[in-house]
């Protein structure tokens, strides 16, 4: 998710590079405050992501995972 550590850092770098960023996260382990300012935010699960896709998106980056290998 984009509200976790890795996703939020990548989102920030993309924003700084001039990209438009939309973050999808269910906040089960991430934090809304972690979403960088300037990024759109959608609270939801990856299973529901298709209904939020916009034809203007150039790409999708997936960062939703558990931090412990055993959990993933």
UniProtKB/TrEMBL annotation:
Source organism per UniProt: Streptomyces sp. SID7499
Annotated ranges, domain NAD-dependent epimerase/dehydratase: 1-71
Gene3D superfamilies recorded: NAD(P)-binding Rossmann-like Domain (3.40.50.720)
SUPFAM superfamilies cross-referenced by the UniProt entry: NAD(P)-binding Rossmann-fold domains
InterPro entries: Epimerase_deHydtase (IPR001509), NAD(P)-bd_dom_sf (IPR036291)
Superkingdom of source: Bacteria
Record Pfam families: Epimerase
Name of protein: NAD-dependent epimerase/dehydratase family protein
